[in-house]
Design brief:
alpha/beta, Beta-carbonic Anhydrase, Chain A, 2 domains, five-stranded mixed β-sheet, 11 helices, 7 strands, globular
Length: about 250
């Protein structure tokens, strides 16, 4: 039995539709896949074709709106411009989302308040599976969460995204004393640093390193990549412009 298949079976007791049951793998009620009618509703906003291209197309829309909003002195006017992105956009039926989920992409991003994936890619609730940590590091629980997204939810794209001015990367580059927990947080970031790199290069290098760690530390994700069932990409978000660049 493959690692990926075994992992799916181990998680089978966790979900019925989208509801947690029993709380432990192997619970008496096994997971049921969403019925055809529910699945169609959950996939109502899934874009055809390449999910990465769909993300980047959404980002271009957001970046244009972000630039227009930045020229407005009124907070209300800025909100109106950015919210207009969803005026003609797709939204999965909330009643369907109450029963389950079928995201079409997953993101590993920084927990920074300025990083808002649904805004950045101009898409609605139920479309992205999101994992966040300061510095978008490949932490154990985050990798396990992505294993779940790939093995159980069927996600075929994981995007690891760093961003401009990342405070966690700044802390990793500095020699200032940190708390023990913060030292643990920046340890993998420091492993990615290249002497002489400026902050932007360090942030990009950290995103590349974190993406590499996903398959280096997860047999489930590596097996999915090797079987061409999963693509892992890296990206950089410039907060000022709102533009995402692939690395």
């Amino acid at each position: 039995m493959s690692i990926q298949r075994r992992q799916c079976l181990q998680w089978a007791g966790l979900l019925v539709g989208g509801t947690v049951v029993a709380g432990l793998p192997g619970a008496s009620r096994s997971a049921e896949k969403p019925g055809a009618a529910l699945l169609n509703k959950l996939k109502a906003c899934t874009p055809p074709g390449n999910p990465l291209e769909a993300l980047m197309a959404g980002n271009r829309l957001f970046a244009d709106a972000w630039a227009t909003a930045s020229a407005q002195p009124s907070a209300a006017k800025r909100a109106q411009i950015v919210s207009s992105l969803w005026r003609d956009n797709c939204q999965v039926d909330p009643r369907a989302l109450a029963e389950g989920q079928k995201p079409w992409a997953a993101l590993l991003t920084c927990a920074d308040s300025r990083v808002a994936p649904e805004m950045t890619f101009a898409i609605g609730s139920g479309e992205l599976f999101k994992v966040s940590s300061a510095g978008n590091t490949a932490f154990d629980d985050g990798i396990a969460s992505l294993e779940y997204a790939v093995s159980v939810l069927g996600v075929t794209l994981v995007l690891v995204m760093g961003h401009s001015g990342c405070g966690a990367v700044k802390a990793a580059m500095d020699n200032a004393p940190l708390t023990p927990l913060l030292e643990n947080l920046v340890k993998p970031i420091r492993a990615s640093l290249v002497p002489g790199d400026d902050l932007t290069k360090a942030i990009e290098g950290n995103a590349r390193y974190a993406a590499g760690q996903l398959t280096a530390r997860s047999a489930v994700l590596k097996q999915a990549v090797d079987a061409s069932k999963l693509t892992i990409r890296r990206a950089y978000l410039d907060i000022g412009s709102g533009k995402v660049s692939l690395l």
